[in-house]
Amino acid sequence: MRWLFVGLLAWGPQSDPVTGVWVGQYTGHAGVENPIQLELVLEVTRVVGFVVTEAEKVRIDNGSFEPSAGRIHFEVDYPAFKVRYIVDGIVKSGQLKGTWKHANDWGDFELRLVR
After folding, report:
1. What residues does each domain of the chain span?
2. Which of 12, 45, 69, 97 is buried most, with the most CB atoms less than 10 Å from its CB?
């Protein structure tokens, strides 16, 4: 019984594929790449955190994670630009890839978990 408990403790934290700092690039429909960083925390199936760009740090809203499919979703308001980004992606093996959109633009992104 003792070994089972120790084994479950060792397995537990590794079962969270979302929490951490993610870095990478996002690209708009015009093809321009921009650096981006996400600071994410998984709370059961709810995702909270921030999008960090060179200019600012913005809280994410409506974050969710579907573990069985590795799907992540969140939204980000940028009041200065009067836009709301909708972000959808797949988390797999320390990689986060997906698409983003708002009323006037769209594109994709690719990030990796760094810590």
Report:
1. 17-113
2. 97
C-alpha span between 46 and 63 (Å, rounded): 6
Cα(75)–Cα(94) distance, rounded to whole angstroms?
21
Q: What is the token pair recorded at 59? A: 């809280």
pLDDT higher than threshold 90 for residue 80: no
Nearest CA to 78 among 86, 70, 88?
A: 86
Largest CA distance in the chain: 58
Helix (H) or strand (E) holding 98: strand 95-102
Residue 3: count other Cβ atoms within 10 Å of its Cβ.
Answer: 7
Distance CA 91, CA 26 (A): 16
Domain 17-113: what homologous superfamily? Quinohemoprotein amine dehydrogenase alpha subunit, domain 2 (2.40.128.120)
pTM equals 0.84
